[in-house]
Amino acid sequence: MYHPPSKRTQLLQRITVYSAMSLAVITVVSILVFFMLGYQFNRNAGTIEQGGLVQFNTQPSGAEVIIDGKDLGVRTAAKRTMTTGPHFIKMQRTGYRAWQKSIDVMPGTVLWLTYARLVPKELEPVKVESFPTITSTSASPNNKWMAIKADAATPVIHLADLSRDDARVTDLTLPTDSFTAPSPERTHSFTLQKWDESSRYLLIKHTYDGTKTEWIVADTQDISETKNVTTLLGINASKLIFDGDNSAILYALVDNNIRRIDLGAATLSRPLVRNVAEFSLYDDSIIVYVTRLDPSTKVRSVGYYHQGASKSRTIRSYSDDGKVPLHLAIGKYFSDYYVAIAYNETVEIMKGTLPRSDATNLSVFDAVSTMAVPGGVRHLSVVTNGRFVVAQTPKAYIVRDVELNKTTTTVLKGDTPVKQELRWLDDYTVWSDQNGML
């Protein structure tokens, strides 16, 4: 005869079931958390270790991913949590050369191998145009246009449309009233400088009568709207930079002072920063600068200026003879600002806050790392959304990866020093030309 369990027995059964269920949930959640944090069981060592997440992608995508000789059975884009330590990665796709790289996975990190470019095994070049000489070139930010100057002494710009399967080249001739004609029996030259962010306007430097210069903004969609910045505002600028948001706004270095130019209104601002040796624009609203040596105090400084602020802000000052290299670059990686200062043969990288230049609160920076640069830095930049600090010399470039806390050095082949700043094909690939080599 069946006897129902007592209340005490039922309570114990419920406690046992609920405890088992709770323990199972805690166990499953713990395993999932550990898995999400990259922990794996190492069969060889018999231990649980934290690995690293590796993201894979290629251009074009759809490539097989092979790790340490084992095919993962997936195609890019893909991701995989890997054990710490060295690994050999290979990504391949039919009809393309394989891409391969040795990596070192660190515990708890994310490694992005998303920049691999696959090159076709068989390349069939198609002749678009040929020029006897090339004096300057400039590629637009959207990679659609390539501006070419074959003859520096003529006002003709060759504009190649790279967005078409049948790439075409058209000729644009600068209006005669957009530049100053040279004196009789004197020469002149046009040098392509840089496109604006909209990939419509092209900055051109015109040199004539020996040492005279003027700056021209060419409208590649309506060449008749080309403007001579120098004659329009009556200034003698040594450098011009397009604003990142508004192509009608430029920043100019005039008599060692930085001024803001509004081409639409044909106006010139007051000096924003004085006694400047070099400057660049960060995040479309922050001017990053290095001052010239003050003849009285014998001091140089590096700092920044927020657009619309009442004054600039000095980050650091140096007492010297003004002859050793001094450069400043600023970037932001996720929520942290990084400041890189190249002085003499050392690059110092700091992390901290970047308050408005006229704010009363102080800037606070913590030292992150330093890089030794024999011979001094010629160009300094922070690129790829703030991840890489790049210090360039005539023979090499040194890169600090702030995410992986890793420094690498690449020595360029050839005997001729590279004078131009390295140019970026994408966020991970740089290029330059030297001694007939790319």
Any chance you could write out the topology, listing elements then pairs?
Elements: H1 7-36, E1 39-42, E2 47-50, E3 52-59, E4 64-67, E5 70-75, E6 78-82, E7 85-92, E8 99-105, E9 110-117, E10 136-139, E11 145-149, E12 156-161, E13 168-173, E14 188-195, E15 201-208, E16 212-219, E17 227-228, H2 229-233, E18 237-242, E19 249-254, E20 257-262, E21 267-268, E22 276-282, E23 286-291, E24 299-306, E25 313-319, E26 326-333, E27 336-343, E28 346-352, E29 365-372, E30 379-383, E31 388-392, E32 396-401, E33 406-411, E34 423-424, E35 430-431
Parallel strand pairs: 3-9
Antiparallel strand pairs: 1-2, 3-6, 4-5, 4-7, 7-8, 10-11, 11-12, 12-13, 14-15, 15-16, 16-17, 18-19, 19-20, 20-21, 22-23, 23-24, 24-25, 26-27, 27-28, 28-29, 30-31, 31-32, 32-33, 34-35
In short:
The protein has 438 residues and is mainly beta. The chain has helices at residues 7-36, 229-233, and strands at residues 39-42, 47-50, 52-59, 64-67, 70-75, 78-82, 85-92, 99-105, 110-117, 136-139, 145-149, 156-161, 168-173, 188-195, 201-208, 212-219, 227-228, 237-242, 249-254, 257-262, 267-268, 276-282, 286-291, 299-306, 313-319, 326-333, 336-343, 346-352, 365-372, 379-383, 388-392, 396-401, 406-411, 423-424, 430-431.
Structural notes for this entry:
The protein is globular and about 120 Å long. The protein has 438 residues and is mainly β. The chain contains two helices and 35 strands. The strands form ten sheets. Strands 5-4-7-8 form a four-stranded antiparallel beta sheet, with no helix packed on it. A four-stranded antiparallel beta sheet has the order 10-11-12-13, with no helix packed on it. Strands 14-15-16-17 form a four-stranded antiparallel beta sheet.
